[in-house]
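Entry for the shared binder. Reason: the reviewer on the internal report wants the predicted structure included alongside the sequence.
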Amino acid sequence: MVIVLSLIRGAPLVEMVPLMLVLLMSAVPVALPVMFTVSMAMGSKELAKRGVLVTRLSAAEDAATMDVLCVDKTGTITMNQLAITGVIPLERATEADVLFAGALASQAANQDPIDLAFLTAAKERHIFDNLPKATPVSFAPFDAKNRRTEAVVEQNGQRLHVMKGAVRTVAEACGLQPPAIETLEARVTASAAKGYRTLAVARGPETGTPALLGLVSLYDPPRPDAKQLIAELQDLGVPVKMLTGDALPVAREIGKGVGLPNIRRVADLKAASALAGNKAVDLLAGADGFAEVYPEDKYIVVQHLQASGHVTGMTGDGVNDAPALRQAEVGIAVSNATDVAKGAASVVLTEPGLTNIVALVEQGRTIYQRILTWIINKISRTILKAAFVAIAFVVTGKFVVSAFAMLLLVFMTDFAKISLATDNVRPSKKPETWNIGGFITVSVVLGIAMVAETLLLLWVGWSHFGLATNSNALYTFSFLLLLYFAVFSVVSARERSWFWATLPSKTFLLALTADALTGTVLTFVGLPGLKPLSWWQTVAVFVYAMVACLGLNDAVKVAMIKWRVPSAVAKKSVDVTSQIAKRAYELYEKRGRQDGRAVQDWEQAEHEIRKDQVGRERPASKAS
């Protein structure tokens, strides 16, 4: 429309085309990649100070949207300091015999916590003192499939076969009958109820059947801050799922101590997933974690969470954890992770525990808020610049700002607003989402409001400041008007509440101040097409922009966010999938874990939950 009117009115093409190109350029978010990169880099720098190393720049943004976190029990929830708490010799064996064989079936080079626990106990109790030296012949480290560690050693010219591992596995290798194995497992269950992990130790000739020597109880205490940090993550809208290879009773006891009481077997998840078919059923919703997990099961858990619509975080330390770490949106290698795990992860922790993960989530949401501020301000200012120039031309028949002044304005403000990457913001208490339709509506309304306000002041200047007859003064007036509105509008946009709720960072404040001062000084220098205004006119434009943006527009912003953004969330249907999954599992437990009834349990649970939901909605609708 502007181009057509320009041609009808005979406006010079050489004046019209450059201005149109500048307006087009200002509408394109050319500074967004720079803003995104600088925000991520600054966030990564802050995280590095807090012990979090970001290996993929977008990981901090992914952490902002993460809504579930799967963590290893050992080393993250617990201290990773396994210690032997009890030895139960069997038959004619002694405690020393059990520890001696268990230590021989261990290797310090592996840095395996269980191996180190046996070697430490043997050293502290002087088990190897006054005994002939045992020379290792072969060693087979722990294998998740046979669940035991084995070694062949030579002592006094005789070769011995020693092993330690899961009680049932070792007992079967020793040739024990089912009744005897069940008796042993009863002891294991009693210890597991107290959070102790129990292993069996056996010894025998190299080629014969080994003899069971005894049982050994180990305990890895929870970290003192684990319960508090798990609660903090849950308050941030990030539920924690504990994954462990321990037996279910041990996992449940540890879980209860840190606020994760509902632990299930990972085999239940596999069985339910197979029966659920292609339904996007969140079978993990009612569980706080899984026991008896093999390394490869972690990948399945991540895939299942993602299929249910979750943005997933996963911690890991071993080579076998690499696929799960790479699959998760936020793969987190813990402090003692292998190089392979660190290479697959997007984040590497330098300290044990969950403290750094809380920092990662908060910093990610801080970065998100900074980028969102830039987007809100960019949309509103694009509307302001385009509509202000177009409407003013239609009404006055003149371009109220020169192409040079507009180019200078775009250059100055875009560079100044990159400093948003350092601004002080408050991270939200729930996972973020890029479904920002409500905020776009707020941006459009603010843009329209600023167009009306700038046109009103332009009319005052046109009528009383003599701008109608002085094009250079008109260009300067419009340049300062758009500059000051750019400065004060971003001060308002940076806060979702009233602009004074938080103080801007020093870097951001200095950048805006320098931007406003530089633009003002350039108008007094007398650049081509920019005639100096009187000081009182400059002050009047400055005060008007400040009052409009930080007074009227800030009130409009607060009202719009309270109305538009919450209403956009409220229109979403209530997701009761997690409630159905929890109820289905309760029915499964109630029926004594009967196989083959997963579909029936799910249908009954869905019927009960849907009926209960309708019952609650009816009184609410009557009340309204």
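Summary line for the report: The longest strand covers residues 135-143.
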